[in-house]
Amino acid sequence: MLPPRKYRQKHQGLKFFLECILVIIISRQARRLRYSCSKFIFRSTGILSASDEQHTWRIFFSEKRFKVSAKFFAPLAIFLLVLGSCRDRATVLTPPPQNLGRTLNSLAAEYQPALSYDGRYLVFSSDRRAQRQVYLYDIRRRQLLPLPGLNTPGRFVEQPAISADGRYITYVSEQYGKPDVFVYDRQSLQTQVLTRDFKGEVRHPTISGNGRIIAFESNRTGQWDIEIIDRGGAAPPALPPTNSGSFEEEESNSEP
Predict the structure, then answer these.
(1) Is the model's pLDDT at 140 over the cut of 70?
(2) Which of 10, 113, 118, 129 could form a disulfide with 124 if both were Cys (CB 3.0 to 4.6 A apart)?
């Protein structure tokens, strides 16, 4: 036994309304919606037309009559929602550029970023203020930290690296008329030059976790080699030794 006619008409009208809502949600940017309806049958040559900034796309139906069913649109809508929610989302911490040197990026060029071990401090060089200098950025507080005595007016300061806890910063500067490797102590605000007596150029310094060992490139022998300097002090080695023997002894013991 069929339900009353008025009930069937009301039910069909609600079904048609819900189907139209699903079509509009799927299209999202629909500019044109042309349809003719006769007992919930769509006849159209361009039911949907949507565009974005770079592409124009259309969803169209043929001239044939067919029923538009919620059984088709509902799964499609759910699929699109699930697909949009399954993206890997990373947190972007980069602040917008500013005219003054108060933040990470400026209107000038920034170079050579290096992170501390815990990821809190970021040291880098920048051409802001019409001179290449070294800056320290606190990622947690999202602001630059002062480095009094590190940057020298009129001299390039670049290629920084930072120790694990963020206390020591090594870098290259032309403070004495040639490229030299320096170490800056943020606690004592003192600067130490390590290659004052080196002949030739130096570049790309790196520093151990506790700030004691400095390695860099040098061409004082006529070719680019790796140099290592131990600054001494009471600080323990950055990493515990794997054995008590020297490198040569380890090599000789490994031979058959």
Answers:
(1) yes
(2) 113
Q: Which domain holds residue 163?
A: 110-233
Q: What is the pTM of this model?
A: 0.55
Structure confidence by residue, pLDDT tens digits, 119-131 = 999 999 998 888 8
Phi, psi angle pair for 151, to nearest 5°: -80, 135
Give the DSSP H or E segment for 136. Answer: strand 133-138
Domain membership of residue 100 (yes or no) is no
Claim to verify: residue 201 and residue 118 sit in the same structural domain = yes
Residue 76: inside a domain: yes
Assigned domain for 219 exists = yes
Under 8 Å CB-to-CB from 198, ≥6 apart: which residues?
180, 218, 220, 227
Residue 103 corresponds to which tokens in the numbers above? 């933040």
Q: Last residue of some domain: 45, 68, 84? A: 84
